[in-house]
């Protein structure tokens, strides 16, 4: 049972600690890694939320789930959205989410254009004779991304091996980057999220088209096999 603890309003520091813990669990769940909500709750009570009870932390997580659903994000499994969340708390959580590294609105090249919630893109709809009105002021969606620290010397060496030519299609880089060098992207053949290594034996230099093909095409597995077959330095992991 919870022992009775503080019932005063939550400070920004306490609320942010809850948000950080929620984002940690959200990211672990998205990447298929195991975690225990009870263990995270205990860590908070032993640390920044030592004045809060287990049940109050649980309810705060439900508050955050509610905000996630408002933003069109999938919540952490097991944390049902709170039915009643004050506008002030909701706004504070939103502002904290907007400042988190990797949690961003979708300007520029940072993210793809995403459909609105419940909207599913299709390829076989008939041609529209009447031009749709569209959206004058598209609303922002928020996403969380998990990034990995990468060795700069590995990236440079892989680009040096490629010498300005895509290692996927064997064509010259499609354009020069802002540094004046042929623009190629370093791709990890076994993805870092799949426990792939950041070594030259697991990295290739690709044009943007081939890079996207590795991630999104219907033949991505077959295309990846061609990389192993043609590039001698690659080693399966």
Main sheet attributes: strand count, strand direction, barrel closure: 2 strands, antiparallel
Q: Give the termini separation.
A: 47 Å
Number of helices: 7
Q: Helical content, roughly? A: 25-40%
Percent of sequence in beta strands = 5-15%
Structural class: mainly alpha
Structural domain tally: 2
Describe the structure.
The chain has helices at residues 12-30, 37-46, 54-70, 87-98, 152-162, 208-216, 220-230; strands spanning 103-104, 143-144, 185-188, 203-206. A two-stranded antiparallel sheet has the order 1-2. Strands 3-4 form a two-stranded antiparallel ribbon. It has 2 domains: 12-99, no CATH class; 152-230, DNA Binding (I), subunit A. It has 7 helices and 4 strands. It has 237 residues and is mostly helical. The protein is 38% helix and 5% strand. The protein is elongated. Helix 1 (12-30) packs across helix 3 and helix 1 (12-30) crosses helix 4 (87-98). Pfam families: HNH. This is 5-methylcytosine-specific restriction enzyme A. GO terms for molecular function: endonuclease activity; nucleic acid binding; zinc ion binding. Keywords: Endonuclease, Hydrolase, Nuclease. Residues 153-212 form the HNH nuclease domain.
């Amino acid at each position: 049972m919870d022992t009775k603890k503080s019932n005063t309003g939550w400070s920004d520091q306490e609320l942010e600690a809850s948000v950080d813990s929620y984002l940690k669990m959200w990211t672990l769940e998205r990447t298929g890694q195991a975690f225990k909500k009870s263990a995270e709750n205990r860590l908070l009570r032993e640390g920044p939320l030592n004045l809060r009870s287990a049940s109050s932390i649980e309810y705060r997580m439900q508050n955050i789930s509610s905000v996630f659903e408002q933003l069109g994000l999938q919540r952490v499994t097991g944390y049902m959205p709170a039915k009643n969340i004050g506008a002030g708390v909701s706004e504070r959580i939103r502002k904290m989410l907007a400042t988190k590294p990797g949690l961003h609105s979708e300007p520029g090249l940072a993210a793809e254009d995403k459909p609105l919630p419940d909207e599913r893109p299709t390829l076989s709809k008939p041609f529209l004779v009447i031009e749709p009105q569209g959206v004058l002021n598209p609303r922002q969606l928020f996403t969380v991304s998990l990034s990995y620290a990468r060795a700069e010397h590995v990236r440079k060496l892989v680009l040096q091996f490629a010498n300005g030519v895509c290692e996927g299609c064997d064509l010259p880089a499609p354009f020069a980057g802002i540094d004046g060098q042929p623009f190629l992207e370093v791709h990890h053949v076994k993805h870092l999220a799949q426990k792939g290594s950041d070594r030259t034996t697991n990295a290739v230099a690709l044009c943007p088209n081939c890079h996207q093909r590795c991630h999104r095409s219907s033949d991505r597995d077959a295309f990846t096999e061609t990389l192993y077959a043609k590039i001698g330095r690659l080693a399966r992991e």
